Amino acid sequence: MDTDNHNKLxxxxxxxxxxxxxxxxxxxxxxxxxxxxxxxxxxxxDSNGEKSYVASTEEGVSVVGVMSYYTVGGVQxxxxxxxxxxxxxxxxxxxxxxxxxxxxxxxxFDSIIEAxxxxxxxxxxxxxxxxxxxxxxxxxxxxxxxxTLGTQDMRVFTVIARxxxxxxxxxxxxxxxxxxxxxxxxxxxxxxxxxxxGQVLAKNLSSSNPNVKVSxxxxxxxxxxxxxxxxxxxxxxxxxxxxxNDQFEQLTKACYLKxxxxxxxxxxxxxYANKPDESCGYHPNVKSDNYxxxxxxxxxxxASKAEFALSAEPSVVHKTRLTAVAxxxxxxHAVGFLGTASGKVLKVHLSASSKGHEQELxxxxxxxxxxxLLFDSSREHLFITTREKISKVPVQACHLxxxxxxxxxxxxxxxxxxxxxxxxxxxxxxxxSTERNTWxxxxxxxxxxxQTFDPPNLSCKKTQQVKRxxxxxxxxxxxxxxxxxxxxxxxxx
Length: 493
Fold this sequence. Notes:
Strand content: 35-45%
Structural class: mainly beta
GO cellular component, one term: semaphorin receptor complex
CATH class of the largest domain: Mainly Beta
GO molecular function: semaphorin receptor activity
InterPro entries: Ig-like_fold (IPR013783), Plexin (IPR031148), Plexin_repeat (IPR002165), PSI (IPR016201), Semap_dom (IPR001627), Semap_dom_sf (IPR036352), WD40/YVTN_repeat-like_dom_sf (IPR015943)
Number of helices: 4
Pfam families: PSI (PF01437), Sema (PF01403)
């Protein structure tokens, strides 16, 4: 796209091998391109009027989207859902469902759902929605954004909204406030990532969330935040997706069955309504799980009150703005990659017992890292984007360290010292690494150290067993080319 047409949204529809490209020109219209050859435009039309305006004309308005489906008349149609803030010349849809093919009276990129509850022109300007992330999981669609409470209260807080993927009327749209720190010091979401936590972090999250059991296969939402209270500080908080969903279930059941009350406290309200507290009541037609996706006679939309927010303590705090996040699992441990406003990407061992140790990944560009960090299919490389540059960097550089001490000083979960080969490497690149103590993991901070020999002297022509002392055992000493070859084994304990 040309330099005056800012890319607002890029989405991949892998099943059809197409790329959705939404820009800022012509009031934010999109095109379809061949994913294998992005220069090949499959579809573009600037003559369909307002129905085709998808993104925003303004560079500062954030737009997010996610691929989904829409079933009508037994036919499953490809669509994408879009969440965006409000620009001066934008259409007023807070959330829209856009079709990716012509179907009857609908044309490509047409908005095919009219749900006034979350699309009214009267609120989009007042609430200052700033969308940062969207994803689908287990037949739900989620949007992460920050907003105010409206014109009377301009404090900003972060919200995750959820609705059923097959809810064609948005009846199930519900918002849950997310707090980062007990006092919600870090109040404004910047970027997010959904991924598995690995065995160690899953165990840590389970112990800190007694009502939620997190396994290494479960999903966790990792979010970076900035602070209006301290503009020079930012943080990352983690929310198990099961904890988020449990909170959503409590919200809807409280509204449908308990007049919006939990433990004699009102926990929900209707956002964007003139009388927000008059939405909930007892509905005798509602059974426990029959209306998870709402219904026309049920109140919609819903939102949690601040007292019922889901809170988490920061796992990373930094004195710079964290603009991006991605998480991988190595050796059962979660490793976070955090982009910054200064163009750096920091690698942090999230499941370490002592937080704070970090490395810089690659060379900083000086330009702010965009909110989407992406792994390649092998998860061996990370794509880092800034305003004018895309970089592909390896997630580890173990081989650059040539001594055991340098290797373990990194505390890098990807790396370890390969004892028998004398190199710093990933475990899979170390021969015989499945044998005990032949690969010394970097975060363990242990290297081979010869402490004593017994006997202290030995003829170079003689081979014999040498007794171990402390934590090391000599397996053999052998003469070769007038030199002694000493093979030792580390003994834990």
